[in-house]
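Prompt: May I have another protein with tokenized structure?
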Amino acid sequence: MIGLETSDEILSRYGDILHILDKIIIYAFALEALLKIMQFGRRFYKYFENPWNIFDFVIVVVCFLPGDYHFTALLRMARVLRALRLITAVPRLQLLVRAEKYSFHDLCKSASRTSVLCLCGTWCVFLWADNDPSHFRDLPTAIISLFQDNHSGGLD
């Protein structure tokens, strides 16, 4: 949902629906936290003994605070980190994690190359979008332009 909201086109077309779905999701997470707290009854404080519960609770509370939407969106995205808990519980995921550990070096090299490419593309958009919009109007176009051979003779 948050990723969809980064597109101006999608946001202008479906913004109202996305914001309603966003509110529904936030209230669902709040209800989940409330139900978990209620299961402890009078010893509700036991809910806060689990670090993941504290993590979830803080994110839910921050989502209801007035303020910068982008900050709360980043925190909500951090909930994805909860999936890391599953690694210890599911043996097949442990196998996948071990396999990824062995390929981590190559993954880091690939990620660093992609990051540099995105960084260079972003610089190109900021620096040259106004002067050369056919090559640098947005990030995807700029990245493609960086790979094109536009050499038209001249000095080598």
